[in-house]
Design a protein that fits this description.
Strand order of the largest sheet: 4-1-9-10-11-12-13-14
Shape: globular
Mean pLDDT: 92
Helix content: 25-40%
Number of domains: 1
Strand content: 15-25%
Length: 345
Amino acid sequence: MSKMATEKAYDIITMGRSSIDLYSNDIGAPFEDITSFAAYVGGCPLNISVGMQRLGSRAALLTAVGDDQVGSFILHFLQREGVETRFSVHKPGKRSSAVLMSIQPPDRFPLTFYRDNCADIELTIDDVLQTPIAESRVLLISGTGLSKEPSRSATLFAAEVAQRAGTTVALDIDFRPDQWHDARAFGVTIRAALRLVDIVLGTEDEINAAMLTDPSQVSLTHSQLSDARVSGDIEAAIQAVLALGPKVLLHKRGAAGCRVHLVTPGSPAHQIHAPGFPVEVSNILGAGDAFAAGALHGFIQGWDWYKAARLANACGAIVVTKPGCANFTPTYDEVMAFVAEHGGF
């Protein structure tokens, strides 16, 4: 992977979901016993923009907030972090998004989304036209941004603009079952988007959901799907994703690390395994976004995919020891110190 030499205004523009995140201060308590919450920010594209800015990339966020105090809270945090917000717009009459979560380690982190009348799902093609996508090395889109109109068309249009401009398009699959009316609609939409994508990031569940490799999932009700694990033949699903056009797929595997699947013109597809870092899990939410920030920062720096994936694993490992998402993503110095303490790359 050669260093991206062309000078552009931004290293990455991320597009889509943003929110205020209210996370339980009562670690281990079920939701009905929570007595207080801590206020953070979240949303896959927002988290990735903050993570990359902290690592040293120049990040901008294309999102939408309401004319409300929650929107001011979100934008104020981003501005303190140095993330460019001039392309983030206000949507009168709409609400900034919110997420509530209880924290019950090691494996229960139930979320409640408040996205009715949501501002960021109102992003339009006109909003994209006001954003200098051609002046960014990477455009990051996410699955939730494809869940409803007008954000769906705007997201696909942004990817088309990026593709024409030679800007790398990355897709975080970001499968949130309760944001979709039908699992089949998720798969159809993601598969349509993949023709515009260069780099894909996802967990096993997300990759399988995108390809619907388990036919039994199609018949699940909405409530069942929200609690279900999407199962299937992950190897077949990965090959199906790559067959649609992406050249790189990063399969996030939690404590097991990451597998990077590469398609090189004229050569057989191959994969690289980058092991993870052992840590004690406090909260898994936001770890995948920190992972994406590390992987894409390494890509922008021209690192080989093994080193980029190890950086990604380290960023994710740090965040799972913390109580929140963007607020706790590491700086470059912090993550490099962590890597050194764990034996280096």
